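FORM 7B - TANDEM STRUCTURE REPORT

SECTION 1: FIRST PROTEIN
SEQUENCE AND TOKENS:
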Amino acid sequence: MIKVHVLYPNKDDVTFDFDYYCNKHVPMIVGLLGEAVTGATVDAGIASVVPGEAAPYVAISTISFDSIESFQTAFGPHAEKIKADVPNFTNAIPIMQLSEQKL
């Protein structure tokens, strides 16, 4: 299984609309990518491991696929539309990482 992690760095001036993200952006992605998506989660950062420090990421989204190829085939044609929606919910610049689940 392949997981696409989208991490939104947290800074003092970062804004993030979880309502929009969870109810519009993620459903849009799942709708566009269709059956290639095998699961999706959204986590809100609440704290650092150091007491009193803010979480390093305001949000982390994980979307699962069977393979890198299924992700690339599904995502490629819709990449620009998905990226164009980002300013509708955050001013953070997302970081993406593809990972292979081992456990």
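SECTION 2: SECOND PROTEIN
SEQUENCE AND TOKENS:
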Amino acid sequence: MVGAVTPEYRALLPGALLAEPYPETRGPVRRTARDWVVDVFLFLFAVAVAVGMAALSFEEGVQEGRTLIDFIVGVLCCVGLWWRRRWPVAICLIVTVAGIWSATSIGAALVAFFTVAVHRRFVVALAVAVVGVATGFLFPLLRPEWGSSSFWVDFAWATIITALVLAWGLVVRARRQLVHSLRDRAHRAESEQQLRVAQARQAERTRIAREMHDVLAHRISLLSLHAGALEFRPDAPPAEVARAAGVIRASAHEALQELREVIGVLREDPAEDAPDRPQPTLADLPGLVDESRLAGMRVRLDRRVDDLGAVPVAVGRNAYRIVQEGLTNARKHAYGSTVDVIVTGAAGDGLSVEVRNPWPVGVPAGPEIPGTGTGIVGLTERATLAGGRLEHGRTPSGDFRLWAWLPWPA
């Protein structure tokens, strides 16, 4: 069933539940200060057991030759514990096999078996435990002088001690796996949080860049319109030329200011305390229409909403951008035509925005205004994200119609 666990769910489970081993030690081991303390303590424990068993053998009257050989074997097993982190299974098997005859290697065998239970899978630890139990079965047969009670009592104690060491090692292993899993989940959660923050920041930058696209397209189209008028009317009265030049200067200044803002937004590391630029609402729509009229456009505003300021900010901003893009497109493609802007709606019914102008057939050729052709695409995306819809195209009456409906909660 482990193979059926999804990666997302697997990341939330402790390693022990997935039957996966704790990261095993391979190759040379670099001990930490804590590892040195633990290793020294366990080495001294194994040596103390060896010395104690050697002293007990003298009291039991075991031959001095056997006792000396037994003690030498026990000390060698204790020394071998320094390599138990690199080769835990091999060291444990060697010490366990030595324990078939050597009583002084019992401490080293317990330490080595505990290391296997902590750092190796349960199946490996269980197999080594079986070898240890077999050792406990053979030792009384080869060294009967150590038998203080019946054979089966000694064998039972050896089995119990082996089982206790195995259980202790499994508990330590499970705890380490849990700590490792929690630490990994914490790192993953921190990385995911940083990713979410970066995505949110990028989404906000994209949104502001889209806003700036709409604004700059509007400003630059005004600049092009006024510059084209001066180009085609070099004999215009000085007052009209001065007024057009003033509008060009003001529009250029505002375009540069807005371009500076969008560059600041799209910087790699924007200032955290940088204030957001004021966003327009539907209450600013009359000013937008007046600005287009000053540029020479014929715009008729049909406002069927009593209070434009009552429209929610987000809805009003989207409606404003739609009208702004509609006026920009009319300046580009229907120069000199009359543009009708109709705003209707109420709370609970939604807000409808319509920009209509005659299809550009036989209209005077105005100054060419470059464009990317993606304005309508951006408006469609904007309306869709707001929960509304947008339609555009030629009507049966021969007009070009840009219409959008946006939800206006009650």
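SECTION 3: OBSERVATIONS ON SECOND PROTEIN
The radius of gyration is 42 Å.
The CA atoms of residues 8 and 26 lie 28 Å apart.

SECTION 4: SIGNATURE
Preparer initials: ____
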